[in-house]
């Protein structure tokens, strides 16, 4: 090996040694966490804490998540915390009862200052806060200004967001969504029990269109308007949310009927052409 190559190899080894030394004595990466806040349509809320690095036991994760939930919703009636696993890392979900009072124009205030102090005390230097509200007309204000943001950063020394959430449920939207399964049921009934094809085919098409619209318009989400308005809750609210989606299975037999009619229509000209091509009385045995 030449002297030039030996010198290059020595320089490379020296550089790797210096880089390794700098990496070993460098500043460790900041501890990060994520807090997901979901406002539910029955007056409750959920707070999920995904903590990376510092918390070593499920009990610590539960304790921190419960404290954060109480800081975010100090007037909550109850807080219940349980843990789970996500990609091998523990996370905690705090179920908050009575986070707000459902009604015609419910609102709630979420101050993240206490959560920031608690996270900072535990050594978390950078936390992502995400907010999810029910699928009803709603506005979110941060510091008094309306915003379309649903995510913020919680850092030591920076002001924590103070959020004002106002919701305006529209129960009439659920009533409109319920028109879809009604149309679907009517279309299926006419398609299968009326012998006139001129009426059965449009009826089946109406049932199929109702099923497609139920998916496209997210009809199953309109039940949230009933819950936020305080009209339904519990099992009744769950059933009401699922009810508009009945239009989807009703569309399946209607689609099969339309497919059968289409196949027969396409095969009809061929069959008619075959009958015309066959000789009526040629004296030849076929």
Automatic annotation (TrEMBL):
It comes from the Bacteria. The chain crosses the membrane at residues 171-192, 199-219, 239-267. The keyword Transmembrane helix applies. Keywords: Membrane, Signal, Transmembrane, Transmembrane helix. Residues 1-20 form the signal peptide. This is DUF4436 domain-containing protein.
